[in-house]
Request: fold
Amino acid sequence: MTYIWQHREWPEFRYDLTGMEDILFLFAEETGHISGILKGAPDALQVETLINTLVAEAIKTSEIEGEFLSRQDVVSSIRNNLGIAQKPEPVKDRKAQGAAELMVNARNSYAEPLTEAMLFAWHQTLLKDSKTITTGAWRKDAAPMQVVSGSIGKEKVHFEAPPSERVPAEMARFIEWFNATAPGGPKEINKAPVRSAIAHLYFETIHPFEDGNGRIGRVIAEKALSQTIGRPVMLSLSRTIEAERKKYYQSLESAQKHIDITNWIRYFAQTIVDAQIETRNVLDFTLKKTRFFDHFKDLLNERETKVIQKMLETGPDGFEGGMTARKYMSITKTSKATATRDLQHLAEIQCLSASGGGRSTSYQLSIPEN
Reply:
């Protein structure tokens, strides 16, 4: 098997952007939409959106690698690192703390040139509690660095990275390329999704660390996006990748076999646009739910307020299967008669809409489409 790094033209990638005009236009359009929504949003909503985006990225980038973090610890760590917590919030999960710190650090330093020291610091932050991985250094093991699946004796090698002795030189060349293709650089790539796609593939192909390559590679992809558009991107690339993880790995494996990476750029650019659309939809819903709650808050009692806030936290559909008297009783610790009376009141003021009947009655949020 010949890999892309063994090609005589490596790392001079070939690609053709013909036919990608629509995707690149959509990226520019969605960037403008998101920017416009944020500029017109209250400060509190902008902060909420930033926190939710960073939380999603930290959690999902770890889930792609099969690691599951405590959401509350990620939220607390991000709030601590952004400096918006009134006092430091406790964080028990050290992996969650490392992932959150990495997200905030990378966002705050998006405009800075990429350096070896920066990558080492990111690696140490991400894997701060590892007892078996050498952090803040390139891999040195003489054994091949392979991406493998399957049981023992039936392994399938999906990819093999360059040998460890080549990593320092390869990474020096990668860092030089990354900075040269930044805005104003001698080899500037002014199409953000294209630069991001190449940066991610290039880094993942070298696979310079013992562990954490995927997570840091996705940070690099977002850094390339942010640098190229001139401000931190508001999206969670990992959330979109994780939703179709198999397609991501298949696209990456295919791209690592050919010096022509046109298909990879098309896939990755579309993934970025999909992530933007998801962010815009979340922003739209957040604005709607803010207006919705502001409209009704003076009409709600304490129990009703608690339930409506709980429903709003779960997203546009409120609760799976709707709110019922039984769920209401569980949330508010109240009687069935009180729950039924409150739900009827919420329906009367058109805060909730009822469906079904009798014991099967359920309620959904009545958030307007526009």
User: Anything to note?
Assistant: The longest strand covers residues 156-160. The two ends are 54 Å apart (CA to CA). The domain at 300-365 is CATH 1.10.10.10 (Arc Repressor Mutant, subunit A). The chain has two domains: 4-285, 300-365.
